[in-house]
Design goal:
single chain; 114 residues; five-stranded antiparallel β-sheet; 5 strands; globular
């Protein structure tokens, strides 16, 4: 089976949206959601990719803009997808992550061939 950008989107399809009245409890809850998601994101992605012989790495300190993509957003996180045991990426997954006063949004923005 050929792995395409659309297939990667479906395999690691992750969408999280939270909105509530703006107060300190909402802001605290958003912090908890974000901390937990960022801690578990590599495990979640790799568990989804493992049956396809793929693995992923979250690229620390790299966002869509540093990849030279235009237009770009600093509110992004980049993951690279590799064949298991390889160091040459097949795809880059760009996640959109926006933390607001009373909202939290996390979703796949785009998948690119590396």
């Amino acid at each position: 089976m050929e792995i395409t950008e659309e297939k990667i989107k479906k395999i690691i399809g992750l969408r999280l949206y939270f909105e509530a009245p703006s107060d300190w409890t909402t802001r605290e809850y958003i912090e908890i959601i974000d901390e937990y998601l960022m801690e578990r994101l590599p495990v979640m992605i790799n568990n989804s990719l493992e049956p396809y012989g793929l693995e992923a790495s979250i690229m620390e300190d790299i966002d869509e803009c540093s990849l030279g993509i235009s237009p770009c957003s600093k509110d992004t996180i980049v993951a690279e997808i590799y064949p298991a045991g390889s160091s040459k990426p097949l795809f880059r997954v760009i996640f959109y992550r926006k933390i607001g006063e009373n909202t939290y949004e996390f979703t796949i923005k785009r998948v690119l061939k590396a």
